[in-house]
Fold this sequence. Notes:
51% helix, mainly alpha
Amino acid sequence: MSDNQSRxxxxxxxxxxxxxxxxELPSQDSTRCLAPEKTCESxxxxxxxxxxxxxxxxxxxxxxxxQTRSIPLRVLVPLLMDAFEHNRTWLQDFADDIVSLDAxxxxxxxxxxxxINQDRDMxx
Length: 124
């Protein structure tokens, strides 16, 4: 059983492209490629592919570390505004994702939300 198999919920199994269960596949020590019809160029290439496979399985199963990036707000906001204005589908795909903010920015946004709500109540 591989590390990935042990991190999956107990009723999940890893299967190969040809339908064999992971326990029926060659051992982890042997060189393997992600695509059965291709041959690996080198053990290093195989290790890179295995590493990527491991990361993707971790992400799918929710067992891996969260992949996060930090970017300035001045870069993020125009992109989000454009996506919202043009009703981009991908924006809806991330609608329920949690975003981390600095506490100061969070307080400013809450205050601004309160002002907007007061303005709406007064206009109604």
